[in-house]
Amino acid sequence: MRDPDKARRHLPAAVELVAGDITDRGSLDRAFKGVSVAYHAAGLPEQWLKDVGRFQRVNVEGTRNMVEAALAAKVERFVYTSTIDVFQAAPSQEYDENSPIDPSPKGTAYERSKQDADRVVVEALARGLHAIFIHPSALYGPGPAGSPGINDFILKVKNHQMPALLPGGMPVVHSRDVGLGQVFAEDRPAGSRYILSESYVDLTHLAWIVGHALGRKDIPRVLPLWLATLVSEAGERWANVSGRPPLIPRGQLHFLQWKARPRNNKARKELRWVPTLFRDGVRATVALLTGQPVADVPGEDAAARSGPA
Q1: How confident is the model over 43-91, as pLDDT tens digits?
Q2: What are the structural domains, with CATH classification, of the chain?
Q3: If you write DSSP's letter for every residue of 38-76 in order, what string do you get?
Q4: 202 Cβ partners below 8 Å, 6+ apart?
Q5: Contact yes or no for 120/60 (Cβ under 8 A)
Q6: Structure pTM?
Q7: CB within 10 Å: which end of the chain, N or C, has fewer?
């Protein structure tokens, strides 16, 4: 990690921390000494950056550095966290790991960088890298604060900073479940892919669940798609001048309109992966983010017992 002090706040004391940066190959070579299994989950998940080249430098070239360092260190397993965005699926269509990886460039710089990074890892398979691919959907729950996402959405609803909802929705998964899935997949055959996603939820339903957990009944209205598109386009033009993120990034609106539904049957069957129900995970996340005592997430015991025997 780039900041060991920050990482220490999120990791147990028994974890050995090593400073490094995926854009610095030398730091990775030092970090990989004595490593048998590598988990590559670093990247930029933002839907807008003024310098779009950062997506390539971090998501693509950073992944290439990780691959080369892993090959040089002869690691036994390389668990790569990709994204559901790389799959090819029509709007509102169901898809799974047998669906093709989309060969045509997708609609945002982020998506295109993840497509390129996926190809980097695929090419390394032929060079002997024992890589396993993890494809999570939109994460929420405990973890380092960073890019806007469902946790940010929860806080904005809590603080009455969400005057309106965007149209559309997204597949979701609890962050702890992704961590478990990554570990469970470690011993799978090279080239295996696993979608980690619990369910699909539209933003209206998400706002209702969050509001219910907060004891509120008011749900923000939904912007018409035409108006959201207009605000997004105008905001992106101004963002390119001001350098400040737009109110509605085009990539975010693009993702919310995809509405494709990933299936998690393979992870459930082969990894014995049991995801946290969304309504339960959101309640625990609301408690976590609002400083309330956090009760055990329902279903946690079942998930903890899951995984390959």
Answers
A1: 888 878 888 899 999 999 999 999 999 999 999 999 999 999 999 999 9
A2: 4-148+171-200+261-283+293-305 (3.40.50.720)
A3: EEE------S--SSTHHHIIIIIHHHHHHHHHHHHHT-S
A4: 168, 169
A5: yes
A6: 0.90
A7: C
Q: Which of 57, 48, 62, 61 is nearest to 109 (CA)?
A: 48
Q: In this structure, are strands 94-95 and 164-165 parallel, antiparallel, or unpaired?
A: unpaired
Which distant-in-sequence residues (6+ apart) come within 8 Å of 279 by Cβ? 209
Rounded CA separation 190/130 (Å): 5
Length of the chain: 309
Which of 144-153, 172-181, 280-289 is predicted least confidently?
144-153
Which is more confident, 13 or 222? 222
Query: Are the C-beta atoms of 48 and 236 separated by less than 8 Å?
Result: yes
Alpha carbon distance 110, 55 (integer Å): 6
Contacts of 237 (CB under 8 A, 6+ apart): none
Q: Which residue has the higher pLDDT, 217 or 52?
A: 52
Beta strands in the chain (DSSP E): 37-40, 77-81, 94-95, 131-136, 138-140, 164-165, 169-174, 193-196, 199-202, 221-222, 261-262
Q: From CA 177, how far away is CA 186, in angstroms rounded?
A: 14
Amino acid of residue 96: D
Residue 293 has what pLDDT? 54
Unique residue bearing structure tokens 């090419």: 123
Judged by DSSP in three states, 95 sits in strand
Percentage with pLDDT > 70 across the chain: 92
Q: Which two tokens stand for residue 283?
A: 């309640």
How many Å is the Cα radius of gyration of the chain?
19
The conformational region for residue 214 under phi > 0 = left, psi -120 to 50 = alpha, else beta, is alpha
Q: Give the model's confidence band at 182: pLDDT under 50 very low, under 70 low, under 90 confident, else very high.
A: very high
